[in-house]
Amino acid sequence: MTHSRLNPAGLRPAVPVVGQEAPDFELVNQFGEPVRLSDLRGRNVVVVFYPFAFSGICTGELCEIRDNLGIFEHANATVLGVSVDSKFALRAYADKEGYEFDLLADFWPHGEVAEKYGVFDAATGMSLRGTFIIDAAGIVRYVVVNPRGQARDLAEYREALSALGQA
Fold this sequence. Notes:
This protein is α+β, with helices and mostly antiparallel strands and 167 residues long. It has helices spanning 56-67, 69-74, 87-97, 112-116, 154-166; strands at residues 26-29, 34-36, 44-49, 77-83, 102-105, 120-121, 126-127, 129-134, 140-146.
């Protein structure tokens, strides 16, 4: 049986836009604990989709977040890294790199949450580099989806988080 990631019109789900309510989801983190987006209401949330644990650009991006976690804490923001890896791979990855934020396993159904956010690439079985900053009320306030091989810019996160404090 083939499983299609396309809707009946043959289109991939759209990337949520600024001003839209963020699609809710629940995934397990690297410790096997469930994390539900809607349970984080009252805090800003930065959802960072990345292709795979242990890959070069992804590690660089997540280490930059790790090394600048104060920016996110100052903005009352929780960081959630999301990939299609298993919780076991994510635990090893977090331990190796010293990540103190949740890495969520969008492992099974494979890429289901990335698909909800319009960033699942069914041809390669991985998520694209998408970042969604969601305010304390659950509304998307910042979106970026970078092409394969292009890292995201931490300065953009800083600006978007700063703007939330002024809203």
